[in-house]
Amino acid sequence: MKRRAVGWAVLAAGLGLLAWFCARPAACPHTAIPNDVLAVQAEAAQPGRYVCLTFDDGPSKHTDAIAAALAEYHAPATFFVTAQPANLPYYDRLPALLAAGHQIAMHSASHDYAAIYQSPEAFWLDIKALRQALEPYVPLDELYWLRFPGGSTNTVSHRYGGRQIMQRLIAEAEEKGYRWIDWNICGEDATAARPDAAQITRNVTEGAAGRDVCIVLLHDTAATAATVRALPDILAWFDAEGYRFCTVEEMFSMTDGGG
Fold first, then answer.
1. What DSSP string describes 83-124?
2. Of 184, 185, 195, 255, which residue is 20 to 30 A from 203 by alpha carbon distance?
3. Inter-axis angle of helices 225-240 and 197-208, nearest 10
């Protein structure tokens, strides 16, 4: 079946319907920018409670430890990767992540806001460079999910590409057949505050309270060792609360967005 281009982001339950929305909490200082909420309705194919653990900015020296923690709970996750010099030495971990049932998705090659958001052309050249870097490790036909650096409604991009840059990129992503997703829970593990493992766990579990569907933003970088330490407790909490772990693509397939 031909993939349908969508801009739906986060799945949330209510009255027998699930809402996909591009949502990122304003309190999440990942990029210190507030975020609007855009919503459309999608009928659920399967009821239940779901969590997508997503890891941005890897792979890194911590990728193996993250994968080991996920394996303890048979928890598939989605890794939104970059192709910065710090990442490239760890690209050989990517085939093992795929083999373990995890999803590899696109984030940015450079993650340089000033460069990628100066124009739509600059953004897609960056994605092209990322795909070229990933091609020896990940089948290109599996690379069609992306996460915009800073999220789909970030305003930092306006400094470089104007106020309409994100709307243009969203429209072009859908024209190109890409799917994109934000998040509705932030671990705040990549902030200047450098929270410890206990605080990261609280950020996630308090953000998840009352939600049937969670898209959790965490990071896989050399600077996020505390995330590795927090991950067992995060996994244990979601498991005890009865959530099903799934990749972004698996969650999409559980809605009518999957065809």
1. --TTTGGGGGGHHHHHHTT-EEEEEESS--HHHHTS-HHHHH
2. 255
3. 40
| CA 227 to centroid of chain Cα atoms | 15
* pTM for the model: 0.86
Rounded Cα distance, 233 and 198, in Å: 9
User: What per-residue confidence (pLDDT) applies to 48?
Assistant: 86
Residues in the chain: 259
And the tokens for 137?
């490790």
The mean of the pLDDT values for the chain is: 85
Q: What is the dihedral of CA 154, 226, 245, 204, to 10 degrees?
A: -60
Q: Please identify which residue in the block is written with the tokens 């809605």.
A: 255
CB contact at 8 A, 138 and 158: no
The CA distance from 153 to 33, in Å, is: 9
Residue 217: other Cβ atoms inside 10 A:
28
Dump strand ranges (E) for 155-223.
Answer: 179-180, 185-186, 213-219
Residue 164 has a CB neighbour count (10 Å cut-off) of 12
Segment 25-82, tens digit of pLDDT: 333 544 333 333 222 233 345 678 999 999 999 999 999 999 999 999 999 999 999 9
Residue with tokens 């795929």: 98
Report CA Rg, the chain: 17
Segment 136-157, tens digit of pLDDT: 999 999 999 999 999 999 999 9
